[in-house]
Design goal:
Blueprint lengths: L1 E4 L4 E9 L8 E8 L2 E8 L7 H18 L5 H21 L10 E7 L4 E7 L3 E6 L2 E5 L5 H7 L30 E2 L4 E2 L5 E5 L1 H4 L4 H9 L4 H17 L8 E9 L1 H4 L5
Antiparallel strand pairs: 1-2, 2-12, 3-4, 4-5, 5-6, 6-9, 6-10, 7-8, 7-11, 11-12
Helix pairs in contact: 1-2, 5-6
Length: 265
């Protein structure tokens, strides 16, 4: 668990990443606190091609380094950070034929802790959730074939985790013909007591949203929340036939000095 004191809100942060049933971990994640801004980046290398772990690492490193060089909160800057990451991936694809087809998802959450605002962007099926009073408030929509079926009414939302097309992505950095990155329209307010979860599909596939919310309501820190979710997801994955994918998650809880004290990292 790490605690970070910002301008007026205190962020309590926990993170995890695991192999699952894979030999290597193609997920990557980083975060940075800069003044009253915070930035979290998570990426999942797309399987089936060489270099997924290289693409995901390039993406999170580029996003965070761009944010570090120019901390800001506007959507244009966030897009520029991801565009820079896409350019890095494209450069490696062209310079090394072995990596020509590498790609990765991306999800970036930016918080303005002075103003109490959040903004995010994503591409692929790495998700961002916002909870308030232990209820799901907002979440990103996957860029996947099964999500399109849900949107068109041909598939129930409850089938997303088990549908045969579950892993069929329509967009990721490095894919030819990739879709534009989605940036949240306007700013989402952030209140004391809110919680955010940024995670790859290897995490959310094994725990549903009601379970996430229930785990949140029974805990007081980001680490305890993440530990409880990981226990639930591991129990579900243990009884499954297919192996668990790599999994990565940031859990972020918002409070003030009375919630988490004044320790900083």
């Amino acid at each position: 668990m790490s605690e970070a004191l910002t301008a007026s809100l205190v962020l309590n942060v926990a993170e995890l990443s695991g192999l699952g049933g894979r030999a290597t971990n193609e997920d990557a994640h980083r975060h940075l606190l800069a003044g009253h801004f915070a930035c979290f980046a998570v990426s999942d290398g797309v399987g089936g091609e060489e270099g997924g772990e290289i693409a995901s690492r390039l993406i999170v490193d580029t996003v965070i380094e761009c944010f570090k060089a120019a901390p800001s909160f506007d959507g244009k800057s966030l897009r520029n950070h991801v565009d820079a990451a896409a350019a890095e991936v494209a450069h490696r694809q062209k310079s090394d034929p072995v990596l020509a087809n590498m790609s990765a998802t991306v999800a970036v959450l930016c918080l303005d802790c002075g103003a109490g605002l959040a903004r995010w962007l994503h591409l692929g099926d790495t998700r961002i959730y916002q909870f308030r009073e232990s209820q799901l408030l907002r979440m990103t929509q996957d860029h996947s074939a099964v999500q399109q079926l849900v949107n068109a009414g041909y598939c129930a939302p409850s089938q997303i985790r088990t549908h045969p097309l579950r892993s069929s992505l329509l967009a990721a950095i490095g894919l030819s013909g990739e879709a534009a990155v989605e940036v949240s329209e306007g700013d989402s307010d952030v209140q004391i007591g809110d919680a955010f979860l940024i995670c790859t599909d290897g995490f959310w596939e094994w725990i549903d949203e009601p379970q996430m919310a229930a785990a949140l309501s029974g805990t007081s820190t980001a680490q305890a929340w993440l530990d409880r979710m990981e226990l639930l997801s591991s129990q579900t994955a243990a009884s499954a036939i297919k192996p668990r994918d790599n999994y990565t998650a940031f859990a972020v809880r918002v409070g003030d000095q009375t919630h988490f004290g004044q320790s900083t990292t």
